[in-house]
Amino acid sequence: MFSKRMLCQDLPAYVGKEVCLAGWVQQVRQVGRQLAFWVLRDRSGWAQVVINGELAQNAPPIESVVAITGQAVASRSQQGCELQASAVSVIAAAAELPFELHQEVIRAGDEQTFNHRVLSLRHSRNQAIFRVKAAVLQAFRAYLGAAGFLEVQTPKIVATGTEGGAELFPVQYFERTAYLAQSPQFYKQMLVSAGFERVFEVGPVFRAELYDTSRHTNEFTSLDLELGFIDDEGTLMDLETKLLQDIFTTVREQCSSELELLGATLPQIEYIPRVTLAEAQNILATEYGQASPEGNLDPAGEKSLCQYAEQKWATPLVFVTDYPAAVRPFYTRTQSHTPELTRSFDLLFRGLEITTGGLRIHQHAELVQAMRMRGLDPEAYKFYLQAFTHGAPPHGGLAIGLERLTARMLGLDNVRQATLFPRDRQRLVP
């Protein structure tokens, strides 16, 4: 049956010929007993189907999977053609829908739509979100591959935490306890030291955070990169600026219809401004009367700072630099003239942090000292430290949250909306 199947988008090329379409029945409009118009949907789009005679009296439930054979004919429909059905085969009849699916926006709460995630993913807006997300991922890979980066895959079951053991999910690993990886950070650095110099990874990371907000999930996709032989965090910010420029261009070119459907506009990135954390906190205090937590920004501050960037620099993105060592991981390189500050940064986009990055310590003795200052036992990190005993180049890197980036690009209210099957404090299925 499916060997002769064609896609809805290709129907205009087959006017006057017999074809087979297969997909989901999205709409049925009955015109008397002997005539009906169906809308059939597949991965490429939709087509109008004209059903005559006895076939019109037995319409399957909405969202049933069917195969329809007939002749493609010219018409005044939106596509300029339609299918005159001669045979209909109901492959899988749909049960009653838990909510009305085919309207501009699904009018059901997040919990209900996530409980019926497969069904809600059939909605055109949700389909558009994940086509954009796929284009972001494709562009990320393509840009870094062209820049000499090697794509790698690192373990997701690990012996210890990247940042001192906090926010870890324990798992039973034979006779001992292991953990789900909260970051590929150690392995990225080890691979730079192994001589690959430039590596990147697309993979899941797991954070046992107790947050229950629109900004957090406990499993997400991290876009990580690390590169050697750099001595300036500005190099990393320059790289991310060019990377995002390329990603946005790719999405505009490949997903124009999806952006239009979602009402999303992507900024033109000429330059992303950079402010120190101290400068950012001063802006928030003087311009918005907002106090910031010591050594950091809170969500309200991130939103206000991006609003300031829009007004002052006409961009919704801003790098924040010079974070205190106390709020950064032990492996972050500090400033030689101000050792209490690090050579690290965050990137904020439309009020949300989407990136953390910076230079790393590459000297073995300095790493050991940094661990001990944080109360960590270097012996527990022996596998990691070993990579720095035989010569490691100066290096740095960054990580972008794919779901956060996608959500900010599309103006989504909740990062879960850019996640196929979200995992949070309450949700473990589907």
Give the SSE layout.
Layout: E1 5-6, E2 18-30, E3 35-42, E4 45-52, E5 65-74, E6 81-92, H1 110-115, H2 117-120, H3 124-146, E7 150-151, E8 157-158, E9 170-173, E10 176-180, H4 185-196, E11 198-206, E12 219-228, H5 233-254, H6 256-262, E13 274-276, H7 277-288, H8 299-313, E14 317-321, E15 344-349, E16 352-360, H9 364-373, H10 382-385, E17 395-401, H11 402-410
Parallel strand pairs: 1-2, 4-6, 7-11, 13-14
Antiparallel strand pairs: 2-3, 2-5, 3-4, 5-6, 8-10, 9-10, 11-12, 12-17, 14-15, 15-16, 16-17
Helix pairs in contact: 3-5, 3-6, 3-11, 7-8
Question: Which features characterize this protein?
Answer:
430 residues, alpha+beta, OB fold (Dihydrolipoamide Acetyltransferase, E2P), 11 helices, elongated
Tally of contiguous helical segments: 11
Main beta sheet, described? 8 strands, mixed
Question: What's the name of the CATH homologous superfamily of the largest domain?
Answer: Bira Bifunctional Protein, Domain 2
Report the β-strand fraction as a percent range. Answer: 25-35%
The mean pLDDT is 95
The low-confidence runs, each spanning 5 or more residues with pLDDT under 50, are none
Number of strands: 17
Q: Helix/strand-derived class?
A: alpha+beta
Order of helices and strands: EEEEEEHHHEEEEHEEHHEHHEEEHHEH
Report the helical percentage: 25-40%
Shape: elongated
What is the fold named in CATH at topology level of the largest domain? BirA Bifunctional Protein, domain 2
Q: CATH class of the largest domain, anyone? A: Alpha Beta
Sheet with most strands: strand arrangement: 7-11-12-17-16-15-14-13
CATH architecture label of the largest domain: 2-Layer Sandwich
Distance N to C terminus: 31 Å
Q: Compute the gyration radius: what is it?
A: 26 Å
Count of discrete domains: 2
